[in-house]
């Protein structure tokens, strides 16, 4: 019941965002020009921002997972919580016509928006599937790389997310995730009842616990590191109502053993 309540709040809020192109919290309440500035703060380049279809970038991330993933032509990439498709579209440019990008999101409005963006551009190497990241609609050992941008913190069952990620990766497959993590303290008590769970801070987990969950799922070469852009991003959020103490934007990386 607790987990479903949290999912319901997240699904409804992000459904509203998809329909209105609104933002998830005060930190993200930006006009189009400010969305661009915020995205630059997250580590995206001007070229990447120009390459994405109109309406794909809602300014909801906390990093640039495609910049750290070192994607190769022909790879199959899975984007967890793909939203309107921004990172998936950037990834498809890197994997090329021989590659495939699969976006999974639990919000039907986001899936519709992403599919519309892809159809308008005539993209044939990217697809979007409705589903939960704790129960991925993806076959075993089907993808080479997993990316995600500020989504894992929203899950009430992060252990399931990591186990599912391990399941769908090919042996030797890797993940490169941007997310908000906690250096100290605890996730907000009763966060599953707090509408602010959607702001990427309330559900942020401690680094040591994330490392343990990833290890328990079977991953190796685990690395969780504060990003170079974290201070600038949190500074951009400092006039918001977010509880920013003890949190940073971080990169999470790991590999499934061969």
From TrEMBL:
It holds the Pfam family Methyltransf_31. Residues 72-218 form the Methyltransferase domain. One of its GO terms (biological process) is methylation. One of its GO terms (molecular function) is arsenite methyltransferase activity. Keywords: Methyltransferase, S-adenosyl-L-methionine, Transferase. It catalyses: arsenic triglutathione + [thioredoxin]-dithiol + S-adenosyl-L-methionine + 2 H2O = methylarsonous acid + [thioredoxin]-disulfide + 3 glutathione + S-adenosyl-L-homocysteine + H(+); arsenic triglutathione + 3 [thioredoxin]-dithiol + 3 S-adenosyl-L-methionine = trimethylarsine + 3 [thioredoxin]-disulfide + 3 glutathione + 3 S-adenosyl-L-homocysteine + 3 H(+); arsenic triglutathione + 2 [thioredoxin]-dithiol + 2 S-adenosyl-L-methionine + H2O = dimethylarsinous acid + 2 [thioredoxin]-disulfide + 3 glutathione + 2 S-adenosyl-L-homocysteine + 2 H(+). Its EC number is 2.1.1.137. It comes from the Bacteria. It is an enzyme of class 2 (transferase). Belongs to the methyltransferase superfamily. Arsenite methyltransferase family. PANTHER family: ARSENITE METHYLTRANSFERASE. This is Arsenite methyltransferase. It comes from Evansella caseinilytica.
